[in-house]
From TrEMBL:
GO cellular component: membrane
Species of provenance: Fluviicoccus keumensis
Keywords linked to the UniProt accession: FAD, Flavoprotein, Oxidoreductase, Signal
Protein name listed in UniProt: D-arabinono-1,4-lactone oxidase
Organism lineage string: Bacteria, Pseudomonadati, Pseudomonadota, Gammaproteobacteria, Moraxellales
Entry-linked SUPFAM superfamilies: FAD-binding/transporter-associated domain-like
Amino acid sequence: MNRTRISAPLLTRLLALAALGGALAGCDEWSNVMQTEKVTPQYRAQPDSAKQLMSYISTASSNGKRVRMTGSGHSASDIAITNEVLFTPEKLNQPLNLDRARLKNPADDKLVRVMSGMRIREMNTFLDSKGLAFTNLGGYDGQTIAGVMMTATHGSGLAYGPIADQVQSIQMVVEGGRMVQIEPTNGITNPLTFPRKLEEDSTIPVELIQDDNAFNAARVSFGSMGVIYSVVLKADTKFWLREVRTKVKWSDIKKPGGPLERLLQGLPVNATGPSPEHWELQYTPYADDNGDHTFLITERFRSYTPLPEQPASERGQPGTDFVSGLITVMEMPLAGIIDTFPSLSKVILEQTMTSQADDNYTNVSYKVFHIGVVNDTPAIAIEAAFDYNQTVAAIERSFALSDSLFSQNIVHTSPIAIRFVKKTDALVAMQNGRNSMFMEVIGLKDSKSTQPLLKTYQRTMYQELGARPHWGLDLNLLTSESQLRGLYPKWDLWKTQQRRFNGGTFDGKVTDRLGISVRPR
Ligand SMILES: Cc1cc2nc3c(=O)[nH]c(=O)nc-3n(C[C@H](O)[C@H](O)[C@H](O)COP(=O)(O)OP(=O)(O)OC[C@H]3O[C@@H](n4cnc5c(N)ncnc54)[C@H](O)[C@@H]3O)c2cc1C
C-alpha cells in the first residue's frame, strides 16, 4: 500500500487550516446588495471580537490564505470580496469605550469610538443619544462605518470632505494578525500615556503609528491594507437641517453670476438671502421643447437650534413618499414598461423632479441627509468624480451622451445627481487633491438599459474628462495600475504604505483586477 508522506511543516499547516475550518462557517454564497457581485468563499465568518479577528487573520495569513472583510455589501464593484476567507461585520457592531487617559485632550467630548461594522443608521442613533451627529453624511444609512471610509463615501457641500475625513484614529489588524493603531502625525493619542494594549483586552498588544502617510493611505484603502477593528470619529454637535428643493432650468443655473458660477468661485451660492451649507442638483439629461434642461436644486441649511421634526410623508409634494414606496416594490414591472416604451423615460424623469419640489422640510440632520424610501428601490448606480471646474463640461457632455444612447433605445430611468465635495488628503480617495464634483447615474436594476447606460457613462467620462470612478459605485471600470497612476498623483505613496501592512493576505478580487496584488492568483 502506498503511504503519503506528510512533512512536519505541512502537517502544522494542515492542522491550522483544520482549526480555521472548524472556526469558520462553510461555503454559502455572499452577494452584494445590487447583485452585481457574488462569491462562494472557502471560509466565511462573523468575527465578534478583536481577539477572534486577530486569531483568524493570523491563521489565514500563516497558511497563505487571502482575507477580506465586507461591510454591508452596498458597493456595486468587486472591492469587498475574495473566494478564500471572507468576514462579514454583523458582530462587530457596537460602540466602544474611549479611554480618555490615552488622549492628548481627554476633555474632547466630540470623540467617539465604535467597532468597524457598526452601520451609519445605528451610529446616528448612538450619536444622537449623546447630543452629537456626523458632521456630514451621504444620502443613505445602511452602510457600515468602515465600508463608507474605505470607498471615500461622501455627501454634498464644499466645506466637507468624504466621511473618512471625520475619522481620527483607526485600529486595524494587519499582516500576521497584529493590531496597529494608525493616526495622523499629530494624532489625538498621547504617545507618552499610550499603554500599548487594547482597551477591551489587555492581552492584546497594540502598536501606535502616528504618521500622516500611513493614516492617509489606510483610511481610504478599499479593504486592501488590513481589517479594521475600530475607529475614533470626531462628531459635531447635534444639529437640524432645513431643506428647500426648487425646480429650475440649466440656463439659470449656469448663467454668469448664477449659483453654479458663484459656487465654483468660492462665493455664497445665493447672491441674496442666506446660502446653504449643502447644495446639490438632480436633472434630466433630456432637453425640453426649448432645448433647455430641467434641474432640481437641493439646498440644506444647518441649524444648531431645534427645528420641527417633520415626518417623511411631508417631504416633497403630497404623496411623493407614498409613490416612492410603491416604486420600491413595483421596480420590475416599471422597468419592463420603460423598456417597452423608452420615450416614457423623459416624462418620468421630469415628473420625478416635480414631485420632490418643496419650499420647507425640516428634521434632525441625519433624517434630512437620508434621501428616503427611494433608497430601497432595486437599482444599480455608478458615480464619477471630476475636478469641480469641469462641472459644466461634464453636465453638458451628459446631455449629448444621453441623446446618443436614447437613439439606441438605451434610456435613463432615474435623474442624474450632482454633488460637491471638498478635497481630501486621503491618498486614493476620489476627492484627493481637488475639490470634486460627483455625477451619479442610477438605473432601475431590471431595466435592460441600465448596464449599457452606466458602463457607457463610466467609460466616456473617464476617457474624455479623466473622471475617477467611485470605489464603490463602479462596475469594475479600471483594469490596470497605469490607469490608477494616471488618476491618482499620490498612487505610489499609497502603494508603499499598503505594502507596509499587506504582505498578500489582504489581496482580493479588486487587487487582481487592478494588477496590484502582492501575491497574484
Ligand atoms: C442605496 C445606496 C446609497 C448610497 N449612497 C451613497 C452616497 O450618498 N454617497 C456615496 O459616496 N456613496 C454612496 N453609496 C455607496 C456606498 O456608500 C459605498 O459603496 C460603501 O462603501 C458601502 O459600504 P458598505 O458598508 O456596504 O461596504 P461594502 O460595500 O461591503 O465594502 C466596501 C469596502 O469596504 C471594505 N471594508 C468593509 N469593512 C471593512 C473592515 N472592517 N476592514 C477593512 N475593510 C473593510 C470592503 O472590503 C470593501 O473594500 C450608496 C450605495 C447604495 C447601495
